[in-house]
């Protein structure tokens, strides 16, 4: 199974960074949206 995961990562390494950045930005927007009512 570890070999399969490594193979998937090496095949998709070009878009892996973009996917991680997209996921992080979605979490940042989610946390900001949940804290926004407490700020106002």
Provide an overview of this structure.
The chain has 40 residues and is mostly helical. It has one domain. The chain is built from two helices and no strands. The longest helix is centred in the middle third of the chain and has 27 residues. The protein is elongated, with a radius of gyration of 16 Å. It starts with a helix and ends with a helix. 0% of the residues are buried. The mean pLDDT is 89. Keywords: Membrane, Transmembrane, Transmembrane helix.
Structural key phrases:
40 residues; single chain; mainly alpha; elongated
Briefly summarize what is shown:
With 40 residues, the chain is mostly helical. It contains 2 helices and no strands.
List the helices and strands and how they pair.
Elements: H1 2-11, H2 13-39
The quaternary state of the protein chains shown equals single chain
Q: What share of residues are in beta strands? A: under 5%
Largest sheet: none
Radius of gyration: 16 Å
Which whole number gives the mean pLDDT?
A: 89
Task: State the total count of DSSP E strands.
Answer: 0
Spans of at least 5 consecutive residues with low confidence: none
Structural class designation? mainly alpha
Which percent bin holds the helix content?
over 70%
Tally of distinct domains: 1
What string, H for helix and E for strand, traces the elements in order? Answer: HH
**Between the first and last Cα atoms, what is the distance in angstroms?**
49 Å
Tell the overall outline: elongated
The total of helices stands at 2
Keywords: Membrane, Transmembrane, Transmembrane helix
Transmembrane segments: 20-39
């Amino acid at each position: 199974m570890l070999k399969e995961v490594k193979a998937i990562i090496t095949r998709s390494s070009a878009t892996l960074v973009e996917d991680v950045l997209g996921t992080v930005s979605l979490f940042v927007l989610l946390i900001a949206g949940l804290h926004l009512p407490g700020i106002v």
